[in-house]
Design a protein that fits this description.
alpha+beta; 21 helices; 26 strands; about 15% strand
Length: about 675
């Protein structure tokens, strides 16, 4: 681990522009990286925080085919949505670029050419999957099949999302083309490979020995598993019509593999920033006094801890990451987040439905961050964390301090008198918190750090509850001055310390307290008067609003609608039965009827005994619909009845026909009814 670096280069995984940003992306990558960057800036560090849209690869091509548009239209649409979402949410990138930019194409091409000229690639003709019907080679995401490791039948050609294994398309059992559904054939094609096996010894020494004690166990474990399993050459080019051209002769029609060009996007984003700011980009990537930190999700661990470092090592002039604090996955209401299935809380929609509540989501995601294991986001937990913590603890303390200061001193910070032992102990404890929170942040324990921030608010609430200035004001005005002075120091410390986690709250609180935004992290530990006596503060203003049950239920209903839509879309329609003749159908006598009575069959969970007016007669029919309908709700229902079905004895009751039913997308039984008014019982259906 690099001690006392001169500068920090912080990267956040480039989001694919095949869809908007959802809470899984935020919890895994963008909120922790933003907290870390903001924290370092408050320490006065030289920080570069870069990201950009990942606009190449199969995911984009697939989206374009699905939507019937060009890849350029796809990336322009989602790059715009993503940029605005990040900006509105307060993610403080110093530069947000895109891999379709010329500077990136040039940088990636130059990087490839450098390794090519050094002879670092293996050029090889291999057999690849080819869709003869579509007349094209199949890149990994255009192939699905059975995972050879866990048996998941919907594994992609690059990864099984069920077990997390990284795969090659040729590893799949029973592969199918996602373009045509055809079984692909093998066909020869030439590609260039990065020989990862050459870097095994370097990676063992650098990671397994050098970072054994400071990298997160989930990251270290996955890397160790890969290295222990033996590394193999990996293709850096592919047959695809969208991406960066391979810049050598004989590579016409081939593109750089997206996993090769995407991490180079961090470098090209840095170049773009440096050109705009009039700075030199090289120290941020080539100076040994620079600390490089990659924030990613666990699905990117191999690429950032094995493959990209091998690329940097092969090039020879770049620094290696000091840490890769990857998070696990965040689930949603018990199910995996899925862009394709719309099972997500989309950031741009959240910002519309919960205006000015960015920090509530930041808080909920950080306090429930999947740092060491997969965690679950629920709307009820989101509501509870807002109402029971942000409102009841943080907001409550600030409101009490500001209201009392305005009530007793017209908003002017009072001069303290002699500090009691409680005052001194409280202020001493307050000064210790920056170091405590820093310790957690430096170890990438953001959930723990947020908990310590809330302990500062708890310290303030306890101080006020124990000291009771609203009672003391009746007997000892001088003591109240000291109490309110101490409480205002805590409130100002909260303004500074909450900024990495809750930047919008920090800004609002700065407006209420009218404090200098330039107060630094270390000021909280060293200054005795963060807010001086005689300073005029503003009026009280609620920092957080209680979220009502109705708002949460609306979000839950929205997800249930998505689940229903997914069931309908994925519902397998039964194949047609064998062909019958007209005379076979004509034998069935279908009539319109009305249910007159309904009761449960004794000792039978599924059966209802129905009395139905068929227009011919009133007859008894036993129907297996008791698990879907209560007797009361179906009396008076119009139904379609097969009246000439041979009678059948069911539990001692003769059933004289059958009513027609079907299932909806959720598998619930639905009556097949005549809709038109004026249709009488007994009318034939033919």
């Amino acid at each position: 681990m690099l001690q006392n670096p001169k500068r920090y280069t912080i990267t956040a995984a480039l989001p694919y522009t095949n869809g908007p940003i959802h809470i899984g992306h935020l919890a895994g990558v963008y909120v922790p990286s933003d907290i870390y960057s903001r924290y370092l800036r408050l320490l006065g560090k030289d920080v570069l925080f870069v990201c950009g849209s990942d606009e190449h690869g199969v995911a984009i091509s697939m989206k374009a085919k699905k939507e019937g548009v060009t890849p350029q239209e796809v990336i322009d649409k989602y790059d715009g949505i993503i940029r605005k979402s990040f900006s509105d949410f307060g993610i403080s990138f110093d530069n947000y670029s895109r891999t379709s930019a010329k500077i990136h194409h040039d940088t990636a091409s130059e990087f490839f050419r450098t390794l090519y000229d050094k002879g670092d690639f293996i050029e090889e003709v291999t057999e690849q999957l080819y869709d003869a019907k579509a007349d094209q080679f199949l890149a990994d995401r255009f192939v699905v099949g059975t995972c050879p490791r866990c048996g998941n039948e919907e594994a992609y050609g690059d990864q099984c999302e069920n077990c997390g294994s990284t795969l090659n398309a040729t590893d799949l059992i029973n592969p199918k083309s996602t373009i045509t559904g055809e079984t692909p054939i093998m066909k020869s094609t030439k590609h260039w490979f990065l020989p990862l096996d050459r870097y095994e010894d370097f990676l063992k020494e650098w990671i397994l020995v050098g970072h054994k004690n400071d990298w997160k166990p989930n990251v270290y474990g996955q890397v160790k598993s890969w290295i222990d399993g033996g590394l193999e050459p990996r293709a850096v080019t592919r047959d695809l019509d969208w991406g960066i051209d391979v810049p050598v002769e004989g590579a016409e029609g081939k593109k750089l593999y997206v996993w090769f060009d995407a991490p180079i996007g961090y470098i090209s984003s840095t170049k773009e920033w440096a050109a705009r700011e009039g700075k030199d980009w090289k120290p941020y990537w080539k100076d040994q006094d620079t600390k490089l930190v990659h924030f990613i999700g666990k699905d990117n661990i191999v690429f950032h801890c094995i493959i990209f470092p091998a690329m940097l090592k092969a090039e020879g002039s770049y620094i290696l990451p000091d840490n890769v604090p990857a998070n696990e996955f965040l689930n949603l209401e018990g199910n995996k987040l899925s862009t394709s299935k719309n099972w997500a809380v989309w950031l741009h929609e959240y910002l519309e439905e919960f205006p000015n509540q960015q920090d509530v989501l930041r808080y909920a995601l950080t306090s429930n961050a999947p740092e060491t294991k997969d965690n679950d986001f629920t709307w009820k937990d989101f509501q509870a964390r807002n109402n029971n913590e942000l409102v009841a603890i943080f907001g409550n303390f600030i409101n009490r301090v500001v209201v009392l200061t305005n009530k007793y001193y017209e908003g002017i910070v009072p001069s303290p008198n002699t500090f009691s032992g409680v005052d001194e102990a409280t202020l001493t404890e307050l000064k210790a918190y920056p170091a405590v929170i820093s310790s957690s942040l430096e170890r990438y324990r953001f959930r723990e750090a947020l908990g310590e921030l809330m302990n500062v608010a708890r310290l303030g609430n306890k101080y006020l509850a124990d000291e009771e200035p609203w009672k003391m004001v009746k007997t000892d005005l001088g003591r109240v001055q000291t109490q309110m002075y101490v409480a205002l120091q805590i409130a100002t410390a909260l303004r500074v310390l909450c900024e990495p986690f809750l930047p919008f709250t920090a800004c609002k609180l700065s407006g209420i307290l009218k404090t200098d935004l330039k107060l630094s992290w270390n000021n909280v530990a060293t200054n005795s008067d963060l807010i001086p006596a005689g300073h005029q503060i503003g009026e009280a203003e609620l920092l957080f609003a209680k979220i009502e049950d109705e708002e949460i239920q609306k979000q839950i209903d929205k997800l249930e609608a998505t689940k229903t839509a997914n069931l309908a879309e994925n519902k397998v329609v039964e194949p047609q039965k064998e062909t019958i003749q007209y005379d076979d159908f004509a034998k069935m006598d279908l009539r319109v009827g009305t249910i007159l009575e309904a009761e449960k069959m004794p000792k039978a969970n599924k059966l209802l005994i129905l009395k139905i007016d068929t227009g011919i007669d009133i007859r008894t029919i036993v129907s297996g619909i008791a698990e879907s309908f209560s007797p009361e709700e179906i009396v008076g229902k119009r139904v379609t009845v097969l009246v000439n079905l041979a009678p059948r004895n069911l539990r001692g009751v003769e059933s004289q026909g059958m009513i027609l039913m079907t299932n909806n997308a959720e598998g619930k039984l639905v009556f097949v009814n005549p809709d038109a008014d004026g249709v009488a019982n007994g009318e034939s259906i033919n």
